[in-house]
Write a structure and sequence with these properties.
The protein is of the alpha/beta class and 287 residues long. The chain has eleven helices and eleven strands. Helix 1 crosses helix 2, helix 1 packs across helix 4 and helix 2 crosses helix 3. The longest helix is centred in the N-terminal third of the chain and has 26 residues. The chain is globular. The mean pLDDT is 89. Keywords: DNA-binding, Transcription, Transcription regulation.
Length: 287
């Protein structure tokens, strides 16, 4: 088996269809079928069962796909190490970044970094903090930037923090807030708990939730249209937003905040371009 076989197995597994897999790999269906038969003969096991038009992987096939995924990651890791080895100011950095940070912070950060180090390239994957963390655990990224603290045993540090606030197109009436329409932003459970704890400290009635959204930018636009108030992080707010804002504080006066975390491995930090990037991220947030 070689890396081409790893890709073939993973593509067939994902599509469960030889025709679609062949199209994705820019080859023919007979060529894929022939290669699978060769692998089955070489390993002396059946990998795939054809049932009408559907494909089912045998337990042996499932195990080989898992091996192919693992080897693909290892091969990519070695490629990165070889490419970045002894390169002080050029190479590839793989980032996994929380969606909101990627939307509101990352573009300006990378733009300035790119001006300083124009030969360093990036691959960026975004998503929920949990999925970004999974990329790190699977060795699919060099660095992760998450919007919640993860149980990470390697290197991690807080790079920034933002405040939670009530936003509304209309004047914020704190006394009667429970009766006002609220736009609820679905987010990770840690943040939801922080907001709900604040609410329970200040009100005995539940919020009047009239809408639920799963994107911060959608939530902001709904508020701008006067459809209700929302409780969100100020990471997405700008001075040009003509919205009323009220920063959340607990009863003891402490602001309700959220931290953004930078995660990486000690081994990865030995790569010069990773050192440059991490140093710049620190500078960017603390200048």
């Amino acid at each position: 088996m070689d890396n081409r076989d790893w890709v073939i197995l993973q593509t067939i597994y994902e599509t469960r269809n030889l025709t679609r897999a062949a199209e994705s790999l820019f080859t023919s269906q007979p060529a894929l079928s022939y290669r699978i038969k060769q692998l089955e003969k070489e390993l002396n096991v059946q990998l795939i069962i054809k049932n009408n038009k559907a494909l089912t992987f045998t337990p042996e096939g499932e195990r080989l796909v898992a091996y192919a995924k693992q080897m693909t990651l290892e091969y990519q890791k070695v490629q990165d190490e070889l490419y970045n080895m002894n390169r002080d100011k050029n190479g590839i950095i793989r980032l996994g970044v929380s969606s909101n940070y990627a939307l509101y912070q990352l573009p300006s950060l990378l733009a300035e970094f790119n001006r300083r180090f124009p030969k360093i390239r990036f691959t960026v994957q975004t998503g929920w903090s949990s999925s970004v963390f999974q990329l790190m655990q699977n060795n699919e990224s060099h660095i992760a930037i998450t919007r919640e603290e993860m149980h990470w045993t390697e290197q991690k540090e807080v790079i920034s923090q933002d405040h939670y606030c009530i936003i509304s197109k209309e004047t914020i009436d704190l006394e009667h807030l429970p009766s006002k329409p609220r736009i609820f932003l679905k987010t990770n459970s840690t943040i939801v708990k922080k907001i709900e704890d604040w609410w329970k400290e200040h009100y005995h009635k539940p919020a009047s939730i009239t809408m639920e959204v799963d994107k911060l930018e959608t939530c902001l636009e709904m508020v701008r249209r006067g459809l209700g108030f929302a409780i969100i992080s100020d990471i997405g707010l700008t001075e040009t937003d003509s919205l009323h804002k009220y920063q959340l504080h607990s009863l003891n006066g402490e602001p309700v905040i959220n931290k953004t975390w930078l995660l990486y491995k000690t081994q990865t930090y030995a790569i010069p371009i990773i050192q440059h990037f991490i140093a710049y991220v620190r500078q960017y947030h603390h200048h």
